[in-house]
Amino acid sequence: MATYSPFIAANKFGLGLQPGELTEIEPDPRAWLLAQLPLADRQPPRYQGMESSARLIEQANDDYRTRQMIQQDGQISANEVRPLREIRERNARMFADQSNQRLAVAIESDTPFAERLVRFWSNHFSISLATNKPTTLYAGLAYENEAIRANINGRFEDMLISVASHPVMLTYLDNISSIGPNSPAARQRDNLGLNENYARETLELHTLGVDGGYTQDDVIALARILTGWTVNLPTRNGNLPNPQSTIGAFVFYPVLHEPGTQQLLGKSYLGTGQQQGISALRDLARHPSTARFIASKLARHFIADQPPASAIDKLAKVFADTQGALPSVHQALVELDEAWDPSMKKLKTAEDFIVSTTRALPGVPLSDEVLKILSDTLASFNQRAFTAPSPAGWPEQAEHWGGPDALLKRVEFINMVGGAVGTDFDAREIAPLILPADSALQTAVRRSESRTQALTLLLASPQFQWRA
Amino acid sequence: MSSQQKFAMNRRQFLKSAAVLTGAGSIPGLSWANSTISGNNKLAVIILRGAMDGLSAVIPYGDPLLASYRGALIPEDSSLLKLDNYFALHPAFEGLFTMHKSGELGIVHAVSSAYRDRSHFDGQNVLESGLDVAMPNPSGWLNRALQLQTQQQAMALGQAVPLILRGEASVGSWSPPTLPAINDDTLSRLQSLYNADSFLGPRLLEALNAREIVGADMDGGSSETGFAALVDAAASFLKAANGPNIVVLENDGWDTHANQGAEQGTLPRKFTELNDSLVQLKQGLGTTWQDTVVVVMTEFGRTVRVNGSLGTDHGTASVAFMAGGGVGKFTSGSAVTGPWPGLGDSSLRDGRDLQPTNDLRQLLAEVLQAHMGYDAQLLREVVFPGLSTTGFQKG
User: Fold this and answer.
1) Distance CA A20, CA A13 (A)
2) How confident is the model at residue A372 (pLDDT cuts 50, 70, 90)?
3) Residue A141 counted as domain residue
4) What Å distances lie between residue A266 and A203, A221, A252, A280, B119, CA to CA?
5) Across the strands, what pairs with A16?
6) Strands (E) located in A270-425
7) Beta partners for B294?
8) Predicted TM-score (pTM) above 0.90
9) CA nearest B257: which of A203, A170, A213?
10) At residue B219, what are phi and psi to the nearest 5 degrees?
11) Which residue of B has its CA nearest to A199?
12) Do B156 and A407 contact (CB within 8 A), yes or no?
């Protein structure tokens, strides 16, 4: 029988305790977590009124085309200086805004477990805006909301299909330039063909896992099946794939689609156009390897870098038994004794660290200036939103986040925070409200030479670096 | 205390802590490898993440089949930096071309790790663990090498320590400082808190040691940013009398699935960056370049054929570069080292990839043995367990 520590509930399942929150959690930490699940698909207030990804992609595409046109002749005329500058400024602002707003949402969240779940899935289906894909530059956050958050209380297969039909993912992993070798488009022009990137990562990173039992032939089959899943933006000849559809939105474009039956994992999928892909993705989502792969990723994120096999088994069983009903899987996570074992801990990622630091300091206003500092710090820790270095997303292991230099930079960041707001806070009062009792830390904080030093010691302490 | 004395003391502390942390001598059945090689020999490893297209880097332009596979990806013939009548360096590699002429660059073609599937993540896992297959949380081969010779010290350039350097031996990491320094009193109070944390404690100590070395040797730091700043730091570390003699750098962005470019474009830009980095490293190292071997490696190669979006998909064999004063001993004397598998349809692996003719570990083992003074048998037992005795095939 596990002990349900409110600190584990808030610091390990959530995004870090806010002073004052403890009394709310203490009576029943598990109930506090479970009550958040139905709210997980709720749009955070900060995101209200945000434009759709289609609109943002259309805008980014326009900006990109304009910029190309201006720069194409190698010289910039006087009347082009201003539009070019405006585009550059918009590029920078839209990129920074997404990172700032996403950070603020985590800091403000009153459903921090639900928000962590959104981020877990967003990282599972990771995208990056820091690639040479200018049309998606404004739409990272919209992707997270539309493909991930909106489906977090549905089934895994719904989220998978939503991701597979999201323009940002299709662009990021090159599916928009994958063309069926026997499609009408390929018959018209040479040098057109498959691009395996998205199909491979769907099998390896999104569903079965690298050891999930697929071959190179399966990668090619899935790539063929997914040809035609693209974005409604003007093609080379200037025409929209579907003039009736929203510009910048997903569209199935039969002209690019590889005709015919495909064999994937030993099963035949008839050439039914888009339906062929939907059937294949549903089967991938329901594959036993997927249940195991997702279970092990959840356990690694919420329990420990090397989670006990028993926890993975239980999660995989719930996933399989409920056909991937995500709320049931999330509930199972809370009900795992292993997750409450105090010997299991996770090192905070850079984002976790910055978010939990700011949550621990209530009253620090989330002004544009403060958000910019936090966001730039996160960037200097190499974890700015939507810039994961690979489609595998941000790593989980303590070895990654706790490199010597990274640790020292955390300490330096806290030193700066302490210098800026240290006199406004009494670390002796905050300590027991955000971390479990620890005599060495309490003593160090109490014996500090100043409030500033006390706050620095508290937040830079090794205790505060762990989700435990 | 003079800064020189302070240094000497830091150096002692560094070694002392490293010895404690590594649990030196605790590997049963092993004696320390011979230490006859002087501590002057330096090693830099550059990992290119994302799988470099070896056939674009070192182009078998003399093969008539090449144009049929990837015509759109081959730069204009007149721009090629021809090494002989079959191979040419990509036009972006002017600096490397100069090094090649003066015997400071070894090019190994058709080389790969033991990994034979096509996942980046498993591919990098195998590349860095030096094992036959991908394993969850293995140690890195370079870390195991450090455990065998405690006089070797390694530094990761970047905040995180990559897998290649993870393991029992203590290693440092460094990236440009961005924030104001902390006062010594706060730092020493924090250190006593960290001493109780067996994971974080040793790492903070490493970081403080690295900061001491580079802080004094770099004269206020590099004016470069991004990867170039790390290359500058690498040179400073390797030159410093009390710095590490091994550095590891990571460079992302090689996964060129779409529009990779022939003479210009994404991949040529990466080539330029790599070329400039190696030139910059040579300049930064000064005379230390003579004692240095730089190994440039990637997790696997890319498809021989261009794909549907003027890029290439995941393949098998690629190219490894070795640069530095002493690379002559690893090369064959011909333009490109290593047997060439050919591009005929039947020679391709799975009908699509360049067939590997060398295990990258054989090359790495030879560098560790001939340049860093490692015992061949220990290399096969500990650093690259199970590596065959066939050795590196030069021709």
Assistant:
1) 18
2) very high
3) no
4) 15, 11, 25, 12, 21
5) none
6) 346-347
7) B44, B323
8) no
9) A170
10) 50, 50
11) B313
12) no
Q: Which of residues 422-461 of A touch B (CB under 8 A)?
A: 440-441, 444, 448-449, 453, 456-457, 460-461
Cα A350 from Cα A375, distance rounded (Å): 11
Sequence letter at residue A157:
E
Determine the Cα–Cα distance for residues B274 and A356; give it in Å rounded to an integer.
38
Q: What does the pLDDT read at residue B222?
A: 57
pLDDT tens, residue by residue, B313-326: 999 999 999 999 97
CB contact under 8 A, B257 and A412: no
Distance CA A11, CA A274 (A): 43
Number of C-beta neighbours around residue B207 at 10 A: 23
Q: Which of A286, A303, A334 is the last residue of a domain?
A: A286
Chain centre to alpha carbon of residue A5: 27
Mean pLDDT across chain B: 86
The whole-angstrom separation of Cα A392 and Cα A210 is 11
Q: Where are the domains of chain B?
A: 3-24+41-383
- pLDDT at residue number B38: 45
- ipTM of the prediction greater than 0.95, yes or no: no
* Pick among A255, A258, A400, A408 to test the B interface (most B CBs inside 10 A): A408
Rounded Cα distance between A425 and A75, Å, is: 55
What are the C-alpha distances in Å from B81 to residues A122, B69, B88, B335? Answer: 45, 21, 5, 12
- Exposure string for B48-63, b = 16+ CB within 10 A, e = fewer: bbbbbbbbbbbbbbeb
Residues 6+ apart with CB under 8 A from B237: B155, B157, B174, B213, B214, B217, B243, B244, B247
Written as six digits, the tokens of A119 are 């981020």
- How far CA B325 is from CA of A125, B98, B235, B286, B365, in Å, comes to 45, 13, 14, 11, 18
CB < 8 Å to B172, chain A:
404-405
Domain residues for the domain of A397 are 346-467
A265 lies in the same domain as A353: no
Name the closest residue on chain A to residue B266, using Cα atoms: A132
For domain B3-24+41-383, give the fold. Answer: Alkaline Phosphatase, subunit A (3.40.720)
Residue A190 belongs to a domain? yes
Q: Fill in the DSSP letter of residue B49.
A: T
Residue A3 lies in a domain: no
Report the SS3 class of residue A159.
Answer: helix
Strands B318-323 and B292-298: antiparallel
Q: How many angstroms separate the Cα of A314 from the Cα of each of A34, A286, A297, A322, A353?
A: 18, 16, 13, 12, 29
For residue B25 the two structure tokens come to: 């001598």
Radius of gyration of chain A (CA): 24
Q: Does A182 touch chain B (CB under 8 A)?
A: no
